[in-house]
Design goal:
Helix content is about 65%, strand content about 0%. By secondary structure, the chain is mostly helical.
Length: about 220
């Protein structure tokens, strides 16, 4: 019996060897990756079965057919550049109308003003703003830009023929010149037309001087 047992063992090993080899070549014997860990080692291509390999073109087709739902693109902006609240034609309109109003207000106040300093100030406003408007009108004519139609005569300032006329007229002139300074500064810094930008730069110091003088005469 001791001689037959080794022979029987060899026979059993010989018959099981093909089955053992077949189990090693089967993809089911390969250890499956645990969970969704990004550190899991991918299976070698050689270990894939024919059925697994047939999924590769299908996966590629699914990726190409997937619709794009979002693309990061910069937003378009149509906002006005900083420092330029109006365009050139709007500046011409506003500056012309502002100059006309200040000329009319100064002329209308001359017979009413009690202070000699304010009367001289009113005369300066008429002279300087008339010259500035003439330059702006000539520039607009050269460029072919329209000018606003002359407005009707403005009513006299509040307090006409009263003791506080000087004070109210000065306050109204200060407010008007503050708006004009802001308008001319914006145009001088951000105007599109080079000639109009130069006009704004050349005229701005005169308007700033008017504002400073009016504030010094305010009581």
């Amino acid at each position: 019996m001791n001689v037959r047992r080794p022979g029987l063992a060899l026979v059993l090993i010989g018959t099981m060897a093909p089955l053992f080899a077949a189990s090693l070549s089967s993809p089911s014997a390969a250890p499956a990756p645990q969970g969704n860990s990004v550190n899991a080692t991918p299976l070698a291509i050689e270990s894939w079965s024919a059925g697994s390999a047939s999924l590769v073109p299908l996966m590629a087709a699914d990726v190409q057919a997937a619709p794009v739902t979002h693309v990061d693109t910069p937003e378009r902006t149509t906002s006005t550049p900083t420092g330029k609240p109006v365009d050139d034609l709007t500046f011409v309109k506003r500056a012309t109308e502002s100059g006309r109003k200040e000329i009319a207000a100064a002329r209308g106040a001359l017979p009413q003003l009690q202070s000699p300093e304010l009367r001289r100030m009113a005369e300066m406003l008429v002279q300087d703003h008339s010259a500035a408007n003439a330059r702006l009108s000539k520039l607009a004519e050269t460029k072919g830009w329209p000018l606003p139609a002359p407005a009707s005569a403005a009513p006299p300032p509040a307090g006409t023929s009263s003791s506080d006329f000087d004070q109210k007229w000065t306050a109204e002139m200060i407010a008007g010149h503050e708006r004009s300074v802001a308008l001319y500064r914006a145009q001088a810094q951000g105007g599109e037309d080079q000639d109009l930008r130069k006009y704004a730069r050349d005229t701005l110091p005169t308007i700033e001087h008017h504002l400073s003088e009016l504030k010094s005469l305010q009581k």
